[in-house]
Design a protein that fits this description.
This protein is of the alpha+beta class and about 190 residues long. Helix content is about 60%, strand content about 10%. Keywords: DNA-binding, Transcription, Transcription regulation.
Length: about 190
């Protein structure tokens, strides 16, 4: 069965979009649009998922076939957008309001699908995502812990420090001192 719309896992950044676009073109397909998690092919070049899956897998991506898997990947992409919303919005929305605003579904439904598919709650995934962003900010050495906590909407530097230790097993000062290379790619968070 050929299709023009492909849902793809592990697309987490603009370079992933470019990589998938190039991979599809090299394989002889004409992508109309490629965005995080989705590639739409030209009507004249529909793809057989069985043929395309190994090509994507060789590049570190995975073709999603089920609706629940597709929704989970869309939620992950939206949560990455939410992190930027947290940093830049004067009065940021709650996670649930942000997600329900983006999806035509209740937060309860989104949460159940995500937990069942990712084997992790949305909240825990968001915490992991935030900690990876904190690691990135710490590695630059430009901001204090309190400034990072403020940007990431933690109630205090101590709250961030406690959550950092829970997730990573290291204190912030240990991470800074050792400059541990243990940052995770976003597709490895769940």
């Amino acid at each position: 069965m050929k299709t023009n719309l492909l849902h793809i896992k592990n697309m987490v950044c603009p370079r992933c979009v470019e990589a998938v676009h190039n991979l599809l073109e090299r394989a002889g397909y004409s992508p109309k649009t490629v965005t995080l998690g989705v590639a739409e092919l030209d009507e004249n070049t529909p793809a057989d998922p069985e043929d395309l899956a190994p090509l994507l897998q060789a590049a570190g991506f995975e073709l999603l076939r089920g609706r629940a898997e597709q929704l989970t990947e869309q939620i992950k992409g939206t949560l990455a957008e939410y992190l930027e919303h947290l940093r830049t919005a004067r009065s940021p929305l709650t996670t649930s309001a942000f997600l329900t605003d983006r999806f035509a579904a209740t937060y309860s439904h989104l949460s159940k699908v995500f937990s069942r598919t990712a084997h992790l709650t949305i909240e825990k995934y968001l915490i992991r995502l935030k900690i990876e962003r904190v690691k990135e900010m710490l590695s630059y050495g430009e901001l204090t812990l309190n400034q990072i906590a403020d940007q990431m909407r933690y109630s205090s530097g101590q709250h961030l420090s406690n959550q950092f230790r829970q997730v990573t097993g290291y204190s912030v000062s240990e991470f800074r001192r050792l400059m541990l290379p243990e940052r995770l790619s976003l597709d490895a968070l769940a």
